[in-house]
Design brief:
Elements (H helix, E strand, L loop, with lengths): L6 H25 L12 H11 L11 E12 L2 H14 L5 E6 L2 E9 L2 H11 L7 E8 L7
Antiparallel strand pairs: 1-3, 1-4, 2-3
């Protein structure tokens, strides 16, 4: 026994299935498109912990003051006057870059800059090579640059 299907029956059956599918599935998709609300439920201690983490040493909320970075050592020696002279020589040429003089017995050390990456420090070191001898890049905690909030 052979079953013969007409062309119209072959085409109508998939169309009926598509219509049935769209009638069943599309309404659920339309309801899924509604805008939702997000409600955050948290302990109030979380805010105080975050605030304490962001505040570091300065006492000002919302402002971190230091992070890991690099500085360049431009002087190391036991003579205080030479250390101050090296610091003044650098500040005269580069007034916008910070200098840091430290004393650890028996030496005075002058470090300059607050570089976030070693590459930045190396670029500055290449520029200073002709003016200072014995330059070293030192990994240290650095001060963050002041941000213009206006």
């Amino acid at each position: 026994m052979k079953v013969k299907a007409s062309l119209s029956e072959i085409i109508i059956t998939p169309v009926k299935l598509c219509v049935l599918f769209s009638l069943l599935v599309l309404p659920s998709l339309l309801f899924a498109q509604e805008r939702g609300k997000v409600e955050v439920v948290k302990d109030p201690k979380v805010d105080s912990l975050i605030q304490g983490y962001v505040t570091t040493g300065s006492g000002k909320s919302g402002e971190a003051t230091s992070l890991e970075g690099y500085r360049i050592q431009i002087f190391s020696g036991s003579d205080r006057k030479d250390a101050y002279d090296a610091q003044a020589k650098f500040q005269e040429r580069y007034p916008g870059i910070g200098t840091y003089l430290t004393y650890r017995s028996p030496d005075f050390k002058v470090h300059i800059g607050d570089f976030r990456s070693r590459l930045e420090a190396e670029k500055m070191m290449q520029e200073l090579k002709n003016r200072f001898t014995g330059l070293f890049i030192i990994p240290e905690k650095i001060n963050l640059p002041k941000l213009d909030t206006e």
